[in-house]
């Protein structure tokens, strides 16, 4: 009886490394630093972007995260852009995944990253008087 428990314990120890997996990222996925905003707005590499209506955000455990639940600044991510220019899929990376070199959108385009967009405040609109 005791030997069965030992065998079961050893089988469980052998099975634990099988739970660790490498996430397959698409070859066209880009690397960036994301700061979440109010859904569907996100900022990636200092540029304001929008999530597509069918976007999915995967956390480090490859589970889906809701955009409103994200907190933090400059989160290292891989992401995909759909045909309309919206962000379609985002993977929040672990430290090991972030260490692997991947092109950013600026590197892929061959241009230096643009500075963040700063918009001047809007001027008040005059209201015509009514009599």
Structural commentary:
It is a single chain. The protein is an alpha+beta fold and 131 residues long. The chain has a domain at 27-109: OB fold (Dihydrolipoamide Acetyltransferase, E2P) (Beta Barrel), CATH 2.40.50. Helix content is 21%, strand content 29%. The chain has helices at 2-19, 95-99, 105-109; strands at residues 30-36, 41-44, 47-58, 64-65, 75-81, 87-92. Strand 5 (75-81) and strand 6 form a beta hairpin. The radius of gyration is 22 Å and the shape is elongated. The N and C termini lie far apart (98 Å).
In short:
By secondary structure, the protein is α+β, with helices and mostly antiparallel strands. The chain contains 3 helices and 6 strands, in the order αββββββαα. It has a domain of 83 residues: OB fold (Dihydrolipoamide Acetyltransferase, E2P) (Beta Barrel), CATH 2.40.50.
Notable features of this structure?
single chain, 131 residues, 5-stranded mixed barrel, OB fold (Dihydrolipoamide Acetyltransferase, E2P), 21% helix, alpha+beta, 3 helices
Shape: elongated
Helix content: 10-25%
Main β sheet profile: 5 strands, mixed, barrel
What Rg do the Cα atoms give? 22 Å
- Number of beta strands: 6
User: What is the oligomer described by this structure?
Assistant: single chain
Category by helix and strand content: alpha+beta
Strand order of the largest sheet: 1-2-3-6-5
